[in-house]
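Two quick folds needed for the group meeting slides. Do the first one here.
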Amino acid sequence: QPSRPLDPIPGDVSFAEIDGLSSFMTPNADFYRIDTALVVPQVPIDTFELGFTGMIDNPMTLSYEDLIDRPLIESDITLTCVSNEVGGQLVGNARWLGVPLADLLAEVGVQSGSDQLVGRSVDGYTAGFPVAAALDGRDAMVAIGMNGEPLPLEHGFPARLVVPGLYGYVSATKWLKEIELTTFADFDHYWERRGWAQEAPIKTQSRIDTPAALSNLEAGTVAIAGVAWAQTRGVTKVEVRIDDGDWQEADLAEALNDTTWRQWKLAWDATPGRHDIAVRATDGTGVTQPEERTRPIPNGAAGWHSLVVFVA
């Protein structure tokens, strides 16, 4: 049980009445899975060990029982895959349970000069991110639970890393067996060696969930709705544009925190014909998504999500 349990998700963070809009919390069975494992690793909890190595004062090895006996936290965090295209589905929101990474690092004593934390999986996969991201107050954790259940096998059981605000390829090591403190100069993680960026903060993005692309709609009031995310910065504004008209500010559901996505909606008086719909979001620092589309490689896709609908 967490030492600081969270309250139930309040109703005002969701526009649950809108058909086609993603649910605020993503069920485990629907949560996206992207990794390099051809076969999901099977790690018995009675032989599980998590080692802390590298540039630390006090090397340490923890069993699964050691982890669950430590003070645990809950945190609602939206994860995003760097390979998610604009408008894509490789994003999900869950309530995670785990051991604060900052507490573990304080115990092992990170040595001066170490600027990269590397998570290593039982299958040899590595991901690396700045040590600072584990110590700046965000709820980075060694996670052992997801949406009120033990981690599902395919999402990293018995333990994985979860770091708000960073794309998974640099941070979200599943089937975790080792945490190594090192430097960016001395170690290139798995995807960095394959042409992806060394560091990867999540970009501000927004998505239209409904209506679907190429929908045939009836004239009249139509709900346009979706989600937007800018983990660790939060989303403060979402705007929608119909054809070449002015940008219209959408209604936002209440923000749960700055590490989860935010739902938005706009009531549109749809007129007959072909229409282009576009969306853009502004984050908590005041920066609005750029229009120009970029590919996911090397550090995440950018650009406005847009689609075409037909109204009769």
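Then this one, please, same format:
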Amino acid sequence: MEAVPLKGVYFAQEYFGHLAARGTSDIDILIKKERIEETVQLVKSLGFEQEEEWIPDHFHCSFSKRIPGSPVPLVVEIHWGIVKEKTSHLKMDPFWKEAVSLGGHSYIKRLSDQHTFYMICLHGWRHNLDSPRYYIDIIQLIFRLNNRINLHHLFQQARKDGTLKRLVRTLSIVYGEYPMLENMMRLPVKRQMKGRKGGLFHYWDFIDFQFLSYDTFQHSVREIYNWCFPRKKDIFTELNKKYQESSYINSIILLYKARLGKGLKATYLLVRGANQP
């Protein structure tokens, strides 16, 4: 069975120079979609338990295993894609076609440098670059691979895959914060990303990320629907509460009460700030 380690200790060793140079909290493995069931059974046979319900149009699932003496379980994420299937036209075949054997192993492979950079950018976008580590990953790859990444070809692939807006948004934000990156690798397409922090711009940034980062109108509408009517597990994740066995209607009411409360609080703070001399 072919598999590709994503991020983790291999990524740290290969691109940061040491397996301990970049922190990691789980094990991410990419497999082919047709091998999902086989991989799941293999992971379960090693004592891992599935953490979340199966999501047909998602691109990964998580399993955890308690470690004696550790309050934090070991988590394995099995990936068969890098973005939600119904939010793009991205196919994994080119990634597998250009993957090469790792360390003389026949079935353990590594993504090409180009596809590694593509994956890391989309990973950063998925988290809206909400942590310095997403910036660091992208910057480190630019530093190490600037002469091995063809951004023109990457943008062409992203346009075909329906992920171009995500790629442009992510790199525009990173380059906007660190303009010296232009001296290493020139960005062929760049958006003006102003006012990501503070005031009403914070909410515009959320809307731009959550709903307007998609290349097609259909994909944006799907994401708006998913935000308005999320899965129960996603509701409690957003509420930062432990999952509860309650009806979907009650869960939605809790969610919108919390959203309304946050909106009113933010509006009050904005009005109060505007009225201060």
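Slide caption for protein two: Residues 84 and 143 are 29 Å apart (CA to CA).
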